[in-house]
Amino acid sequence: VNADLAAIKAGVALKSARLAVNISQGPPPTIKVALDAVDEQSRPQKLVADVRYDRGNVDGDISTLTLDTPHGIWRLQQTASFHYDPRRISVNNLELVDGQRRVALKGEINRGGVLDLVLAIQKFNITNVTHFLPGHYPLTGVLSAQARIGGTAALPTITSSAELASAKIYGISLQGLSSSFDYSSGVATFRMTALQVRTHELKADGRLPMMLRWNGKFEARPTGPASVRIHSKDLDLAMLKYASLGMAKDFKGKLAIDLSLNGPLDNLQPTGGIWLWDAKADVGALGLNLKSVSA
């Protein structure tokens, strides 16, 4: 089967795509897939894979995967393999590299035995993904991350950390954004730090007792009250001019936060405060010029 498609916007925006599918009898039957596509910026993309289906089990090999992005060309380093059945999913040798930049996934998740799934991302510009998607995404930056799922389906463990350098979120530029998420022994914890400049940062951390398992049906539910703290001694409001979409300018002032949230997820109770001083803004869209606002 051969097909030529043009102006594709089914979740991924492509200028054109050529798909070739060849089915052999087996056993088991093998589906050979070759996809050559061109994105909206005329960059070529390529995928070649073999997929085998046998009584509910799916096995496959990806021999070629090339992604031409605005920041470089990512290539599969060696043939990657995958497996799926109702009780197990596994991936091996899935590693895309562009110079010193790298994305790799290996391991397996199952409903019975030991879990071992590892994701590693090194210096990945996230616009490599968003440029394929229609619409505008208000997040840019260079991502490095690690995540690992271990334990068992009845008692899983999760460890993960991520850093986003040269970050820009809704037009707000940050020196860096870092976070971590961990789950073990029935408790989930997270930490996050957003750094404006060396002396201006926003921190948040929290914990939530919860049940997470998928040895039967998937289950994720809180088992106790959550606790979250958000803290900053000194944020510069000048950064807000980039997030105002042109409605306001000349933001000035300082913001401090020491806020705690405790209780059930659907009824968190805040304590602490938010302090604002020496704030100014010219809100042209409303004809307002705010001066010396404090709270």
Termini separation (Å)? Answer: 68 Å
The number of helical segments is 1
Name the overall outline: globular
Q: Summarize the main sheet.
A: 20 strands, antiparallel
Proportion in helices: under 10%
Task: Indicate the low-confidence ranges by residue numbers.
Answer: none
**H/E order of the elements?**
EEEEEEEEEEHEEEEEEEEEE
The tally of beta strands, per DSSP, is 20
Strand content: over 45%
Radius of gyration: 24 Å
Notes on the structure:
By secondary structure, this protein is mostly beta strands. 1% of the residues lie in helices and 72% in strands. The chain has one helix and 20 strands. The chain has one helix spanning 127-130; strands spanning 2-9, 13-24, 30-39, 44-54, 57-69, 72-76, 80-85, 88-98, 101-110, 116-125, 139-151, 156-169, 172-184, 187-197, 200-213, 219-222, 226-236, 249-263, 269-283, 288-293. It has a 20-stranded antiparallel beta sheet that branches. A hairpin with a 4-residue loop joins strand 11 (139-151) and strand 12. The longest helix has 4 residues, at 127-130.
Compact overview of the structure:
This protein is mainly beta and 295 residues long. It contains 1 helix and 20 strands.
Describe the secondary structure blueprint for this structure:
Elements: E1 2-9, E2 13-24, E3 30-39, E4 44-54, E5 57-69, E6 72-76, E7 80-85, E8 88-98, E9 101-110, E10 116-125, H1 127-130, E11 139-151, E12 156-169, E13 172-184, E14 187-197, E15 200-213, E16 219-222, E17 226-236, E18 249-263, E19 269-283, E20 288-293
Antiparallel strand pairs: 1-2, 2-3, 3-4, 4-5, 5-6, 5-7, 6-8, 7-8, 8-9, 9-10, 10-11, 11-12, 12-13, 13-14, 14-15, 15-16, 15-17, 17-18, 18-19, 19-20
